[in-house]
Amino acid sequence: MGNFLTWNFWFSPRPGAFMASSLKVVLGFIIFLIIFSIVSGIIKKKWFKGLYAAFWSGLYGFFLTNAIIGLLLTFFNYEMVPFLSARFWFLLWAISMLIWLFFIYKLAAKIPEKRAQMEKEKQFKKYIP
């Protein structure tokens, strides 16, 4: 664990390849992202016009983009490309995923407001000839 918190561990331009267990964890996470991108893509097509359309579209973009980025980072690490296999790219990837999930959460938090607005419009349109 001591090596995990060192500057040289994260910012070495030639960090070496993953250990077998680390590679399995990263590939498992990428497979998770691919599976959820397929599921969210199917749901996005089902609800392409609706209250949850922006939410599912955001999730689909999140899962698909991060699966591709993860595959690229893993490929660069496997091939030991000097600068592109540095571990700080994984750190930046994780930080960007958290930021992106925050914005998706903000989209999901606006759904009740949209639902209330739609109910008000429905009540208003009920009386218009």
Question: Outline of this structure?
Answer:
The chain has 129 residues and is mainly alpha-helical. It has five helices and no strands. The protein is elongated, with a radius of gyration of 21 Å.
* DSSP E strands, number: 0
Q: Structural class, from secondary structure content?
A: mainly alpha
The fraction of residues assigned to DSSP E strands is under 5%
- Overall domain count: 1
Helicity level: over 70%
Mind describing the biggest β-sheet?
Answer: none
Defining key terms:
mainly alpha, 129 residues, 75% helix, elongated, single chain, 5 helices
Summarize the helices and strands and which ones pair or pack.
Blueprint: H1 7-11, H2 20-46, H3 53-79, H4 88-109, H5 111-126
